[in-house]
Write a structure and sequence with these properties.
Length: 586
């Protein structure tokens, strides 16, 4: 592919060459290898001068004298104690963007990672027989964007949806359904997702009432849990019905979220049952885990409870049952040794951080994680209401995810209808869905995953401010201009001088590749979102100050159309990496 060196990297290379000519001992300094750092000229000279015990302003002056000017750097001057103010040539900006636009693979010159590996990402983990609520939103949205970013850089990504499909509640459900078979009177696949989950919800509530009020039923239900864990064929068949019903629902919700969830990627807690006993045996034989009051536990010196006593990770309970830790540790073994993963990424609520800290440390002690295989929890914060408290209904119940998405689509459709000029009702409905779902995703992704964020639909679907609607309208505006241009095609003209607004837009557009690399390496979709918002803002300034189709010369019209086209392509690709669509018309 046609990888394009960014202007930031080119400037850095020129500075590094001049610096090593001035200060040869700096050649081995790590600062000179950080070619992705735009602020090298701001702090690099100061840091290197300090190491060399030289006057930073004098060193900077000597470096400037050796910098080659002309093709990339138009001017460079020293300011303050040794900062460098650098002006890139207009020609370099246009030529670099032209090279990105000419990339035959359509990647805008974004290179693949130098050493891509294999990442297993655990995200979007709903529970069987339970409706998805607002708490399930962040894992799905953040995880999907990280998948897109990693795959775009060339990483091999194995998706895993660790659904909750095992445990004592299924004994209760299965026993109830066995005694009331008529209450599930259809086959999986013959109902909608909503109907499927409505059936399961009704069954669960009925089974819970009977479990709480009937001691004999409670005994039978607990016996059924044992049958399930032992692999009784009839019990497993009943359990499979619940899983199939739930999947119908899961797929319907993820389809509404415009996310691809593939059935082979759904490997829940039950998928590791056959490994649990061996996982416990390996941990106990190696001394990583020890028996304590009948349970198999792992202890940590730095993890203690309020009473000052160590808090263990319980891998196997005293009654022989297995907890979440056994399943998670077995999953690590599978992902490392079967899928040959270099990285394990868990997009999981921050409230589970202690659990994963103990699980990862246990896996390291067992040798399953090491310097070549890392495990990271991408911990996310809570979705809050406008009042800053956890998002609830007026009745204090958890908000159903489908209700939230439907409301977002309704609000967005109203905005689209108000602005629509030549859209049919069908097109308004389609755009409303794309804008509404995009609004929900962007509000999440534009915030650092670790932070809580307020769910405010009024703000999310606003045409002003840092919203996906603002970015989508910027893209649609560009497409409108390109359509109005008719036979006039975008074309780069490096010989033309650029206005301040054109320069700012062009320089920012050139940073797309570096933003992709940084966002993927740090699992940070919010950095991509921030970059795209700034791009749209700079385009708005350009649009206001630089007439495109009424520019002074044919060459200037073509060049400004070219800037529009490149900006649109970056917006389209960048939004796709966030899992958000960019309608051609709005």
């Amino acid at each position: 592919m046609a990888s394009v060196t960014s202007l930031t990297a080119s400037v850095h290379q020129r500075l590094a060459t001049a610096l090593t000519a001035t200060l040869p001992e700096a050649a081995a300094d790590p600062l000179l290898r950080r070619s992705d750092r735009a602020d090298f000229q701001a702090n690099g000279i100061l840091a290197l001068a300090k190491k060399a015990k030289a006057n930073p302003r004098e060193l900077a002056t000597q470096v400037v004298e050796k910098v080659v000017l002309g093709d990339v750097i138009k001017d460079i001057e020293v300011s303050g104690p040794g900062f460098l103010n650098i002006t890139v040539t207009d020609r370099a900006i246009t030529e670099n963007l032209a090279a990105r636009a000419a990339d035959p693979e359509g990647r805008l010159g974004v290179p693949y990672a130098e050493s891509p590996g294999t990442t297993v990402i655990d995200y979007a983990q709903p529970n069987v027989a339970k409706e998805m609520h607002v708490g399930h939103l962040r894992s799905a949205v953040i995880g999907d964007s990280v998948v897109q970013l990693l795959e775009f850089t060339g990483e091999t990504v194995v998706r895993r949806h660790h659904i909750g499909d095992w445990g004592t509640q299924f004994g209760m459900l299965i026993q109830y359904l066995d005694e009331h078979p008529h209450e599930l009177d259809h086959k999986a696949g013959e109902v909608t997702g909503e109907q499927a989950m409505s059936n399961l919800d009704r069954l669960y509530k009925a089974a819970r009432r009977k479990f709480d009020s009937d001691e004999e039923f409670k005994t039978r239900a607990r016996r059924r849990v044992v049958d399930l864990q032992a692999g009784d064929p009839h019990t497993l068949a009943m359990w499979q019905k619940f899983v199939d019903e739930s999947k119908i629902y899961f797929f319907s919700v993820f389809e509404k979220l415009d996310m691809e969830i593939r059935d082979p990627d759904i490997v829940g807690e039950s998928g590791y049952n056959d490994m649990l006993a061996e996982t416990c045996r390996l941990l106990e034989e190696s001394g990583v885990a020890v028996r304590s009051e009948g349970a198999l536990c792992v202890f940590f010196d730095d993890i203690k409870g309020p009473d000052g006593n160590p808090v263990p990770l319980i891998v196997q309970k005293s009654d022989g049952g297995y907890g979440y830790a056994a399943t998670d540790l077995s999953a690590i073994r599978d992902r490392v040794f079967h899928h040959k993963a270099n990285s394990l990424l868990y997009v999981v609520d921050a409230r589970q951080s202690l659990h994963f800290k103990m699980v990862f440390e246990t896996a390291r002690r067992a040798g399953w994680l090491n310097d070549d295989v890392k495990a990271v929890q991408l911990a996310f914060g809570t979705v809050l209401g406008k009042d800053g408290k956890p998002f609830k209904t007026r009745e204090g119940e958890t908000v159903r995810l489908v209700d939230l998405l439907d409301e977002a689509i309704d609000r967005a459709s109203a905005v689209v209808r108000e602005k629509a000029r030549d859209l049919s009702e069908e097109e308004i409905a389609e755009r409303g869905t794309q804008v509404g779902i995009g609004a929900v995703k962007y509000a999440d992704l534009s915030t650092s995953a670790s932070r809580d964020y307020k769910f405010d639909l009024d703000q999310m679907v606003s045409l002003n401010g840092d919203t996906s609607v603002y970015l989508q309208y910027a893209y649609a505006r560009i497409q409108s201009i390109l359509r109005k241009a008719g036979d006039i095609r975008p074309a780069a003209h490096p010989e033309l001088a650029l206005s301040e607004a054109e320069r700012a837009l062009g320089l920012h557009a050139d940073q797309f590749a570096e933003t992709v690399a940084e966002s993927a390496a740090e699992y940070a979709p919010h950095k991509m979102a921030g970059y795209l918002y700034q791009l749209a803002s700079l385009y708005t300034t350009f649009y206001d100050k630089c007439p495109v189709l009424k520019a002074e010369t044919p060459e200037q019209i073509e060049n400004r159309l070219f800037l529009c086209d490149v900006t649109a392509r970056i917006l389209h690709q960048g939004m796709a990496l966030l899992g958000i669509r960019t309608p051609e018309r709005l």
